[in-house]
Amino acid sequence: MPFDDQLRPDTSALYTDLYQLTMLQAYWREDMDEPAVFDLFVRRLKDRHYLVACGLEQALEFLETLSFSEAALDYLATQDPFEPAFLDWLADFEFTGDVYAVPEGTPVFPDEPLVEVVAPIGEAQLAETFLLNQITFQTTIASKASRIVEAAQLDGEDRIVADFGMRRTHGTDAAVKGARAAYVAGIDATSNVAAGQAYDLPVTGTMAHSYVEAHDSEVEAFRAFSALYPETILLVDTYDTLDGVRKVIDLMNETGDEVQVRGIRLDSGDLAELARSSRTLLDEAGLADVMIFASGGLDEHTIADLLDRGAPIDGFGVGTRMGTSADQPALDTAYKLSGYAGTPRMKLAPEKSNLPGRKQVVRQYEDGTAVRDVIATEDEQTNGAPLLERVMADGKRTEAGAPRPLSAIREHAAARLDELPSRLRAPTANPEDYDVVLSDALEKRVADTRDALAETMAAEAA
Amino acid sequence: MPFDDQLRPDTSALYTDLYQLTMLQAYWREDMDEPAVFDLFVRRLKDRHYLVACGLEQALEFLETLSFSEAALDYLATQDPFEPAFLDWLADFEFTGDVYAVPEGTPVFPDEPLVEVVAPIGEAQLAETFLLNQITFQTTIASKASRIVEAAQLDGEDRIVADFGMRRTHGTDAAVKGARAAYVAGIDATSNVAAGQAYDLPVTGTMAHSYVEAHDSEVEAFRAFSALYPETILLVDTYDTLDGVRKVIDLMNETGDEVQVRGIRLDSGDLAELARSSRTLLDEAGLADVMIFASGGLDEHTIADLLDRGAPIDGFGVGTRMGTSADQPALDTAYKLSGYAGTPRMKLAPEKSNLPGRKQVVRQYEDGTAVRDVIATEDEQTNGAPLLERVMADGKRTEAGAPRPLSAIREHAAARLDELPSRLRAPTANPEDYDVVLSDALEKRVADTRDALAETMAAEAA
């Protein structure tokens, strides 16, 4: 079977690490089913100054459909650690917990919970792997894409950014969900047809070098393609870029109104220099409307550099570096137990500690600009806008957790990003430009939990 | 629908860039259906000195089942560029070409075709995106995993390497195919249950910090877990690592033969120092059989460093840095037209040129060690072992292209990797240690193709 190894409802419960299932069996055997609180958050940022939360929709889909099919149970029965009575119990397993989350598209910062899961401990534990997988990946890509979109519009000009990453993303799920995440962060279109179908995204594309090479000459290729697609974008760098531009000009003079090529694409060489020369040639030929698109190894830094150098580029096709978030291909996400059976919990390791108990994140504004986030305990009164909403109650979505059109998520992201200090959104921002602080009540809870833990350990050692 | 956006037979033809379909329509309108040759190869390596080819099986599955379902055609009908007659033609579309490929698990080098597709140009063009996606990703991960396995065994000791990457891979396809690729490259097991089911891989796992924290004390957690899993691996660093080790020793003294804990896992701190101290404690307690496993931010460099420092570690759990190939998350792969209608083709751009026409790669040996690869024309006689096999003929798999058990692919990889000079397999290898040369006949074809292209361009300009 060709695609048998893909995620599907009948085996989706197996999208987990083995130890989640062995721990689940242990909790079941020990009758440990008190509510646990798990937080999903990012520990530290590197080369990022804000994140764009993404992937919650897939996390909720997973939780609301989580169950062990016969196929899944048959497989687990072949694995040594599992006993028959546990597998019988698994057959009726479902997720019955509550979930609190920051809406997709919201900018977030380290230590802030993107998601809090409150559920019988085994259920909350089992959710870890899939939630981390989808939210880490989509937040990684949305955050990278946001930087690229910001770079393309740093001077206030509205330039097009298209996702061309599909060929080098990490598999098919990455291609589709990555296009979704990049769209949330503000890109305009994707080349990925499957993502276009799955999420109703604008799809786009130009032509490949191979098309030009397969024809007897470049001009023949341009003529054939633009006859079929009169408003297309022609790729001009297969042999000699400026020669290619001149052929486009000749073609448009030759065909008159029939062909209104929308643009040319540059994919190699010194893009700033070639864009300038191409612009001059086109303008001199009275073709000021013909746009210039650039592609080839682009990211926020190369785009900022091109625009700094005054390159007259109207749109960017961004591939591998966005689709793999090449400079930081993963975020330092964690999913940590912060409470069990009504008691806050935490790890002590200084590098890997976490904030105990349920929490709320409150964003504070000055003159419409977000200036500070306060991480507070769940129920205290704090000035500002709370970010976490209850999106699932007793295993069912709440109204706040209902699926939203991707266009609405994208608008939410744009509005929330616009509230951030603009200096924070530049590729070279200083992360010190935004404060994230703990409330006094949360500080106190951290100290109390640490003290209680020290007492337990002293008692154990005695 | 929860997993509607996943790759499946009914929409798999949409796993492509839009321009492949617009070019396909153009070729159809222009009656261009002569055989084309496309090569899939890697241009340049960075921080890698050899690659492990991987992903061919998924490429062949895609090609042999490639078709446009009603759902796919319905979607394309909503997209502007496509005309009804073309969509009717697509309804009967199938891949009818030949495919030549290097067997999965074979070490390969830059410029060597991993795959050559020979098919009517539109078919070969349409295959580009999916083939690049799967082969780039799986080869990226197999190559990274191979470096990690080599580092873990650099001194000839056989240490365990397990894949713990699922939580931060780029989505679900990356998690499953990544585990497949890493297994081909020689890892021993994965934590990913879905991959275990899909590919019959050994699955493994220990316990999480949350399990320890949810119990009233660390020792209670150890007691409960090892009672259920007497040969388990206990995670000792939740509060204080050496304290944790002492509790494991106490537990084993207390339970006698009932509990034979297989090992302990260290996940934070100075792993070399902690491994040494833990080893001493265990040995002094007569527990020389209890193994020490390490995890937490590992890759080939940190593993080599730990072993250099004499850390007595028996196995490594490697996560994000292997699962995302964090230092090089993509390879510089290309899929280039090298022939059309019987004539060799190439691009001229010096950075992006390709080798024209069909080819063969021949590996030459001295005393059982591979010392040189010759990239030759497809039919010349060259001493050595040819790497490319015909795996598909007229759209059907040949015997050489039949699906192979993953264990056989893994053995092939191990045998072929063993033939490489050992210095090339060290993390700090010098890529100059291996030669890849063109045969005289191929050199001549390059020169002839370049000359012919120059003539065409001169004629066009005149």
From TrEMBL, chains A, B:
Pfam families: NAPRTase (PF04095), NAPRTase_C (PF17956), NAPRTase_N (PF17767)
Domain Nicotinate phosphoribosyltransferase C-terminal, residue spans: 386-444
EC primary class: ligase
Domain called Nicotinate phosphoribosyltransferase N-terminal: residue spans: 14-135
One GO term describing the cellular component: cytosol
Domain Nicotinate/nicotinamide phosphoribosyltransferase: 161-337
Keyword Ligase among UniProt keywords: yes
Keyword Transferase: yes
EC number: 6.3.4.21
Domain of life: Bacteria
Post-translational modification: Transiently phosphorylated on a His residue during the reaction cycle. Phosphorylation strongly increases the affinity for substrates and increases the rate of nicotinate D-ribonucleotide production. Dephosphorylation regenerates the low-affinity form of the enzyme, leading to product release.
Record InterPro entries: Aldolase_TIM, N/Namide_PRibTrfase, NAPRTase_C, NAPRTase_N, Nic_PRibTrfase-Fam, Nic_PRibTrfase_pncB, Nicotinate_pribotase-like_C
Pathway this chain belongs to: Cofactor biosynthesis; NAD(+) biosynthesis; nicotinate D-ribonucleotide from nicotinate: step 1/1
Reactions mediated catalytically: 5-phospho-alpha-D-ribose 1-diphosphate + nicotinate + ATP + H2O = nicotinate beta-D-ribonucleotide + ADP + phosphate + diphosphate
Any GO BP annotation: NAD+ biosynthetic process via the salvage pathway
GO MF term list: nicotinamide phosphoribosyltransferase activity; nicotinate phosphoribosyltransferase activity
PANTHER family found in the cross-reference section: NICOTINATE PHOSPHORIBOSYLTRANSFERASE
Protein name: Nicotinate phosphoribosyltransferase
Organism: Salinibacter ruber
